[in-house]
Amino acid sequence: MAADLEDRLKALMLRGQAGDAAAWRELLALLSVRLRMFFARRLDGGADVEDLVQETLLAVHRRRMTYDPAQPFTAWAHAIAKYKLIDHWRRNRTRKHEPLDDLADFLAAPETEAPETRGDLDRVLAHLPDRQQKLVRDVKLQGLSLAEAGARAGISEGAAKVALHRALKALTEFALKGRDDKERG
Amino acid sequence: MKTDDLIEALSLDVAPAAGVRPRLAGAAGAGAVVAFALVALWLGFRPDYPAAFGKPMFWMKAIYAALIALGGFWCVDQLARPAGSGRKGVTFVLVVFGLICLAALVRWFITPAEDRMPLLMGQSWRVCPRNILALSLPILAATLVVVRRLAPTRLVLAGAAAGLFSGGVAAVVYGLHCPESTMPFVAVWYSLGISAPVVIGAVLGPWALRWR
Predict the structure, then answer these.
(1) Is residue A9 within 8 Å of B6, Cβ to Cβ?
(2) CB-defined contacts A:B, below 8 A
(3) Predicted ipTM of the assembly
(4) If you count DSSP H runs as helices and E runs as strands, how many of each does chain A have, helices first?
(5) Which residues contact A97 (CB under 8 A, 6 or more apart)?
(6) Is the bond preceding residue B82 a cis peptide, omega within 30 degrees?
(7) Which residues from B are below 8 Å from A when comparing CB atoms?
(8) What's the pLDDT at A115?
């Protein structure tokens, strides 16, 4: 079963690296389930679990080019999760002496059924100004080219590219800011 | 924000990003330009430049340094990735170092005893390691900046690998200045010069390469 899982995750990773959004969403969803168990087990179910899950997903996302297809995917993901956990402990100045090299444990996390229900895209996009929302929808959901989406918005292709990049960055920032606000509140 | 929403946001932004190797090559290129400028403006080219390009020993030095740089590149390429191991790259570098030591020893023993010390010390042994270190610093800085944006998880080793890589590239560039032409000199003083950024990289690694 572990081998099946490895093959499945690796296939998703390779498609995600190549720019397949659906595969990437599925991979992150599958990973989030496993990461939640991984961190919950090591943090005694503390409130930081979800933060660590999100930080790890973000690291997986931003550093996805460092995955080498010659290596097992689960070892790669496990190493990132472990790095994040140690970093978390270091920042909180707690020392735990737990075995961290239990890769099998990471692999064997029982699979909950389908990946989580999709987040509500409308709610996510609602964070953006209307113009940016429209641009993201046109390019990412309707599949328009940047030139076409730009023409609809009355801007050049280059301007559309820049605006889209900003919008996607802003979405991630909203995600993280929302979390920080929650922490403070 | 919920984790599902984060996933949703991230999956909109999946344009393929530049790979590890092009980034490292870019860092080496940028650093090497600065190192070249240091040779041109500070150290100066060797007196027989550019006729030196026709001399075998010029190329022996360049090949030795380039092979070390290649092994260093191999190490960084692996150690900049989670769970990466530099074992193969280090083995390669040790083999290359072993071969040049062998060549140096042969040259040493076929040389009459009274000529051996000049062979080893050349005219520039006092400055050679220092100069290679100086040339390696811009390359090391650029490499560390690039590796920090990748995902090293063993920071001391990754830093040392970055140092090895930059030392090798710096030694290639240094050949444009260095007038020495014996194997024993290269085996000892070049290798010493390349070791310096390895140590600096290892020391800086945990600080310079920590990513969030």
Answers:
(1) no
(2) 128
(3) 0.88
(4) 9, 0
(5) none
(6) no
(7) 1-20, 78, 80-84, 149-151, 153, 210-212
(8) 46
